[in-house]
Amino acid sequence: DALFPLTKMTSKENPNRLVSAYKDNVAFILGPKVEQFAPKTQHQADFFQVQDIDTVISLKAETHNFPTTVEPFNGAATGSGGEPRDRLGGGKASLPLAGTAVYMTSYPRMTADRAWELCTMPPRPWLYQTPEEILIKASNGASDFGNKYGQPLICGSLLTFEHEENGEQLAYDKVIMLAGGVGFANKRDAIKGTPKPGQDVVLMGGDNYRIGMGGGAVSSVNTGQYDNAIELNAVQRANPEMQKRVSNVIRTLAESDNNPIVSIHDHGAGGQLNALSELVEATGGKIDIDALPIGDPTLSSKEIIGNESQERMGMVVEDKDIEQIRKIAERERAPFY
User: Fold this and answer.
1) CB 174: neighbour CB atoms within 10 A?
2) Helices and strands of the chain, counted as H and E runs
């Protein structure tokens, strides 16, 4: 109860150029006026035009500790891949630019001549992967997603740590993997709209599979506390090509003169259960579970609404705008429901 108000105190005391914080997928600060170079309309062939827009800068960071501990490549990939989705879901849509990745593990013990790695505690029997495997595979996974999706990782940091004092042993046996990044939005789109009765809930992205089941809950306990099958089921799987398709549609809408998005959220922890309910939180709404795309016919209803299959975005839009958005989604081959 005391920690979060303390965290927010900085922005309360010194709001400076802050536009939005602690209430959206990302935080926004005031940005510069920039030249936007984009087609005049994008649901049809049209000429490119240059226009000045006022911007806000998006800032975002999140951890992907548990999945990177269990399955480093996909764990770090879906961290560095999920974080730009949060920036896509900022306000009424914002655009990612560049990412960062941070890794903290216990000593990797890659060679025998690293004396400082030998004088603390002995290696433990690692549950899933060794620190050396984690550092190599996680770095590969984060870079792989960024390269395929089109967001460069421009900086990061690495810390390996073990320490013994007063009979207590401390180490990053449960990995810290932090994904962050920056981007921008048109200032007019910095604050989400409020859904109203009669508007439509739209889902774009991949099918539902038995992937990322209970990831949010499993991430919050000690690794190894649940059965191996439960922990592996909680890890997401990276699909950067699908994310690129969906983000191209969102970019198109964000660059248009009249962005039709009322509100937007990415599908992270909790899948549809979280993202779609967040979309209609202020008003309530109806989600038809039979209209959700199914990749695995053996899924239960609970698994359909709660899985964290990657690369999905939910939006609320006016009914009159559906067909125009659908045309753009078809052009980008982004599944649209």
Assistant:
1) 16
2) 10, 11
Pull the structure tokens for residue 251.
């970019």
What's the first-to-final CA gap in the chain, in angstroms?
39
CB 94 within 8 A of CB 188: no
- Neighbour tally for 225: CB within 10 Å: 10
C-beta pairs of 256-261 under 8 Å, 24+ apart in sequence: 256/41, 256/42, 257/40, 259/92, 259/93, 259/186, 259/188, 259/189, 260/317, 260/318, 260/321, 260/324, 260/325, 261/92, 261/93, 261/189, 261/193, 261/315, 261/316, 261/317
Whether 254 and 95 have beta carbons less than 8 Å apart is answered as yes
Query: Of 89, 124, 81, 105, nearest to 236 (Cα)?
Result: 81
* Per-residue tens of pLDDT for the chain, all 337 residues: 688 899 899 899 999 999 999 989 999 999 999 999 999 988 888 999 999 999 999 999 999 888 899 899 999 999 999 999 999 999 999 999 999 999 999 999 988 888 888 877 888 888 889 999 999 999 999 999 999 999 999 999 999 999 988 989 999 988 999 999 999 999 999 999 999 999 999 999 999 988 877 655 555 556 655 556 566 667 778 899 999 999 999 999 999 999 999 999 998 878 888 888 889 988 888 888 888 989 999 999 989 988 888 789 999 999 999 999 999 999 999 999 9
Residues 6+ apart with CB under 8 A from 221: none
| Dihedral class, residue 310 (left if φ above 0, else alpha if ψ from -120 to 50, else beta) | beta
Q: How many CB atoms lie within 10 A of CB 94?
A: 31
Look up the pTM and report it. Answer: 0.90
CA dist 24 → 8, 93, 247, 292 (Å) = 14, 11, 18, 25
Dmax (CA) for the chain in angstroms is: 70
CA 113 to chain centre: 39
Q: Which residues pair with 184 in a beta bridge?
A: 57, 95
* List of residues 6+ apart from 302 with CB closer than 8 A: none
Q: What are phi and psi of 54, to 5 degrees?
A: -80, 140
